[in-house]
Design brief:
Layout (H helix, E strand, L loop, with lengths): L1 H13 L5 H13 L9 H5 L6 E2 L14 E2 L2 E6 L2 E6 L11 E2 H6 L1 E5 L4 E4 H11 L11 H9 L6 E3 L2 E3 L5 H20 L1 H4 L1
Antiparallel strand pairs: 1-5, 2-6, 3-4, 6-7, 8-9
């Protein structure tokens, strides 16, 4: 049941409903986020989260890069301007799968100009807590909140002679890519449960 909700949320995002990433963040958290002993994730309840290797499409951050590193998404440009898009299965993805703690906590975004790094955990829980995926907690993570207003990814494009920034920063596409990674991981390791 929960897997079908995850898939529906990803499909809605892919059909152009970018704000569906907010709902998607809640589904991802339900699968993997443990908060104390009373609030355990589905994968913890199944008993396999620490044993499973999670799909990694990001790889390591590039050291000393002067440009922002948004490893879970890419900048794309078209007739209507620029936006951040998830890579889904389109990337090189030569990276080995990771144990949960590394997958969840490794940095996947860096803005050198603002000295910010963020992990999958930051993206998922930031969207879930700040954007209202399951509740709103205004003091949760200021790095996540600044993505919405500061354009730390640095993407600027020209449209009809005017400089513009994308409507959404890298957070929405990054959450969608995390959903893709989780989907691949679940299909590989839990096919008997999710089919």
């Amino acid at each position: 049941m929960r897997f079908n909700s995850l898939k529906l949320s990803m499909r809605n995002y892919d059909e152009g409903h970018v704000s569906e990433a907010i709902t998607l963040s809640t589904h991802i958290a339900t699968f993997v986020y443990d908060h104390g002993k009373k609030n355990q994730s589905l994968l913890t309840l199944i008993g396999n989260k620490e044993k499973v290797q999670f799909k990694d499409t990001a790889g390591p951050l590039i050291g000393n890069n002067l440009m922002p590193d948004a490893l879970l998404c890419m900048a794309s440009f078209g007739a209507n301007g620029g936006k951040y898009s998830p890579m889904l299965h389109e990337g090189p993805f030569i990276y080995p799968d990771l144990r949960f703690k590394e997958w969840w906590n490794n940095s996947v975004f860096r803005s050198p100009s603002e000295n910010k790094e963020m992990s999958r955990r930051d993206f998922v829980l930031g969207m879930r807590n700040l954007a209202g995926g399951s509740h709103v907690s205004p003091n949760w993570n200021l790095n996540f909140a600044s993505l919405e207003r500061d354009n730390p990814g640095g993407l600027i494009f020209m449209n009809n002679g005017n400089y513009r920034v994308p409507e959404h920063g890298p957070e929405y596409a990054s959450v969608r890519q995390i959903g893709y990674e989780l989907d691949v991981t679940l299909r590989k390791n839990f096919s008997d449960i999710i089919s």
